[in-house]
Amino acid sequence: MKSLSLPISTASLHPLLSALPSAPAFALFADMFRLRLPLCTTTFNIMLRHLCSAGKPARALELLRQMPRPNAVTYNTVIAGFCSRGRVQAALDIMREMRERGGIAPNQYTYGTVISGWCKVGRVDEAVKVFDEMLTKGEVKPEAVMYNALIGGYCDQGKLDTALLYRDRMVERGVAMTVATYNLLVHALFMDGRGTEAYELVEEMGGKGLAPDVFTYNILINGHCKEGNVKKALEIFENMSRRGVRATVVTYTALIYALSKKGQVQETDKLFDEAVRRGIRPDLVLYNALINSHSTSGNIDRAFEIMGEMEKKRIAPDDVTYNTLMRGLCLLGRVDEARKLIDEMTERGIQPDLVTYNTLISGYSMKGDVKDALRIRNEMMNKGFNPTLLTYNALIQGLCKNGQGDDAENMVKEMVENGITPDDSTYISLIEGLTTEDERAIDDERLAAADAAKV
């Protein structure tokens, strides 16, 4: 712009200013300022959007307060910037400033942004306060996006009945439910084990002329996969394809995990290959699902091969990858090899987690190698992880397997003292262990009696 001799309008530069990445956009903005081009509200709004996109809402607020004529878009841009960073209280303060200092009434976008912001950080009660304030003032009519935020927030908190109550209020006010509304409730109902009600909502959705989208189908497929009903999940998958809804990486991941639980390894391979043929780029989660399929089926060498293929595509393994491989090795009794993977994880900057240690403890316990299992338990505690129900159950199982019933009983006492309630698995292992111990004692008595009779 420094060499330009022809006059140029500010408005003609707005598309370029908006399309540029932040750094060159600010360079252009500086040139415009240096050349004394008239900067209007739209110019500033574009720069505010750049600042917020760069994660600098505080700088955006400073610029807003220097503007001669901010408008609703100006305030909404900055409010959205703070909400995207989780700073919703600051966004709410700016909404108040918008009215008191700017003389601009918050609109539907303003309220929707703040309400959604509170819900995203888990403070649904604060979102309700803003929503109720909006209704009381009567300046803005509620929209589906606001109700969806509240419904989603309550679903995330496990308050499904309250979410359904807001659905009812939404309908009473004449606000039409959207596909997103249905998806939120269908997912929550499935997670709550209320599959029949979830399907009733899907039918209602179709009756209102709303077509299920890919999220709807993924929710249904994932719900059935979690129930272990793979047949139904595959039927929905086929129906999805017939209706022209393109499956995503999420779809294939859910199906592969579900099929691997059934030991249908060939089917998981076919699904993975189909996903690739359909142009889906496998991500880490999908690769982990396929690795899990081969690991749990005992084909651990193929599982390691898949990790190698994944890395060739520059997808780095994570803790889930390693934990899955460790579990596969432990199932084959190759616990020492699994133990070595911790060193490999650490070298790659992947920190072992509670699942890692519990997997090893379970592996050693299954072999009856309680000494090494306890050593891993101590190592885990030194790393700041407290034993869980799974930890204790594995150790108790190992002790019982070794005929150390008294030690197993002491382990139960320890877990109770640490605030962990034993479950069915705990008591079954303990009973089996004590029974085995009694049987051994009887066998020993019989052998002793037989030896005495010979004498």
Automatic annotation (TrEMBL):
Keywords, sorted A to Z: Repeat, Transit peptide
PROSITE patterns tied to this protein: PPR (PS51375)
Renumbered ranges of PPR repeats: 40-70, 71-105, 107-141, 143-177, 178-212, 213-247, 248-282, 283-317, 318-352, 353-387, 388-422
MF terms (GO), sorted A to Z: mRNA binding
InterPro entries: PPR_rpt, TPR-like_helical_dom_sf
Pfam families: PPR, PPR_2
Protein name, as recorded: Os04g0477200 protein
Species, as recorded: Oryza sativa subsp. japonica (Rice)
